[in-house]
Write the structure tokens for this entry.
Amino acid sequence: LSLLVNLQVAVVVIATIGLLAVYNYRLKRLPLLGNLVVAVCAGTTFMVGGLATSATEALTLPGPLIPAIFAVILHLMRELVKDVQDLEGDRSVGLRTLPMVIGERTTFALVFVLALSLAVATYRPYAYEWFGYRYFWLAAGGVIAPTFSLSVIAMVLPTPKVARVFSGVLKVAMGLGLLALIVA
């Protein structure tokens, strides 16, 4: 169906399908790389929308690159948090996830770095006056504050229970992030 939209959309959709096939065949067993592929595939949703409306403007700022970057960072955070949450189950079926390789605390330290990156990425559209104050306050209060706070808590107390709570908060943060982009 993507071929009916335009060539650029078709290329992104076919590449995403290819990435998902490789992920299912091999990459889901590789620490971090599989998580990154899932996150990138989530970000392509926004690029497809941008390419469908204007292939020439899709790569200019502000544009779909901003929500795509947000989606990649948030999904990567959630993927890593879910790996900590699912540690016992993954171990029982022979998967080798990042928390198994570097430990839960270090995985949450990486999530903390991603939360900092998200904070910087969230501020830039506001600083450049592309998005207004409603976007900024909704994103800061609904996305940045909870993800940053929970990443700090998780580094101190890296348990599956904290990971479960964090995963749920990340779901809500994704919804609030979308709302922030809508009001932008």
